[in-house]
Amino acid sequence: MNPSIPAKTPLLALTMGDPCGIGPETIARAVAARATGPAVVVGDVAVLRRAVAQCGLLLPVARLDAPADALDVPPDCIAVWQPPGLATAGLVDLTMGRVHAAAGRAAAVCIRAAAELALRGEVAAIVTAPIHKEALSAAGVDFPGHTEMLQAAAGGVPVRMMLANEELRVVLVTIHVALRRAIELLDFDAVLSTLRIAHRSAAAWGQTAPRIAVAGLNPHAGEGGLFGDEEIRFIAPAVAAARAEGIDAQGPFAPDTVFMRARQAPGHPGEFDLVVAMTHDHGLIPVKYLGVEQGVNVTLGLPFVRTSPDHGTAFDIAGTGRADASSLIAALRMARRLAAAQPGLVSCVG
Q: Domain check: are 282 and 350 in the same one?
């Protein structure tokens, strides 16, 4: 946590995402539903105006001189701040649903600008619309996604991805790397660090003693070493070390059943508040199966709150006006809830 950074404003920063994806359309629909609250869209005015037209909406789009001016904009108006360095020329003319280096470059500029606003305490949290990893790569951006970019903007602090909905919260030890590489990156320190970040972050949003289940890496959590020994060599020792620090961590459990045990559903109170999973797909498949439209991606460990919708750029429907804003609206609500849990501070939960 950084107590030197005040975050007393209710203003959120909302990045436009890849201009050739559905991000701008979901933003337009969220504003039309009056679901954003005070928010400044960090992006291109022309792109947002196009999104309004694609959705068949009648919404004004205002270009702001400064992000704080969004506090004076009516709730049914999209308030857009074009950050310095954003190359807007020709951006609105790019073909929808395609990978473009210019789109990836614009998305990266907006993400960095929003992070700077959060670090200065000018916004209470940031919510990021989807970006396309191939477009980032085509633009020469050295990071594979939001999490890594925001981590670098915050000075390289240890961070973890959490995907959450009303029924399940999953924190990942490894994220956007090949599965073979993910297994290579797993070790005692990585697991213990994840448990510490998950515990500290949950405490910041009001769960002072979160019950954390740890999923194994191998089938049946290794079955005593028959199907792999990672559980014996470093996962179980990391759980033990976390417990010695006062963290309520249990496991490792078989990954094919632990998510069902943790799920909070009517008539089924979950046994755990969080699940720590070793790899990206191990953890995200069960959350997304429960409903992508309600899933929210939260970056834990940042010195500011950051959430995003649980879906990608949806190039197959981009520009058609069919985009569903439900996940973006859920991300906005969670960002406000997390920011409100730590009044006066930019949180360690992002």
A: no
CA neighbours closer than 13 Å in the CB half-sphere of residue 264: 12
Which residues span the domain enclosing 40?
1-155+313-350
Say how many CA atoms lie within 13 Å of 112 toward its Cβ: 16
**Rounded CA separation 55/316 (Å):** 15
**Domain annotation covers residue 336:** yes
Residues 172 and 257 in one domain: yes
Computed over every residue of the chain, the mean pLDDT equals 91
Task: Report long-range pairs for 81-90 (Cβ below 8 Å, ≥24 apart).
Answer: 81/40, 81/41, 81/42, 82/43, 82/44, 82/45, 83/42, 83/109, 83/110, 83/113, 84/113, 85/109, 85/113, 86/43, 86/44, 86/110, 86/113, 88/44, 88/45, 88/46
Same domain, yes or no, for 5 and 150? yes
Taking the C-alpha atoms of residue 307 and residue 334, their distance in angstroms, rounded to an integer, is 7
Q: Are residues 285 and 335 in the same domain?
A: no
- pLDDT tens string 241-253: 999 999 999 999 9
Q: Are strands 305-309 and 296-300 parallel, antiparallel or unpaired?
A: antiparallel
Tokens read off for 203: 């405490």
The Cα 142–Cα 98 span in angstroms is 20
0.90 exceeded by pTM? no
pLDDT category of residue 321 using cuts at 50, 70 and 90 = very high
Q: What backbone torsions phi and psi does residue 158 show, to the nearest 5 degrees? A: -65, 130
Question: Do residues 124 and 199 share a domain?
Answer: no
Could you tell me if 33 and 53 lie in one domain? yes
Residue 304 lies in a domain: no
Query: Do residue 228 and residue 339 come from a single domain?
Result: no
SS3 303: coil
Tens digit of each residue's pLDDT (9 = 90 or more) over 144-174: 889 899 999 999 999 999 998 889 999 999 9
- 145 and 170 belong to one structural domain: no
Which pLDDT value is given to residue 348?
35
CATH number at residue 346: 3.40.718.10
Total domains in the chain come to: 2
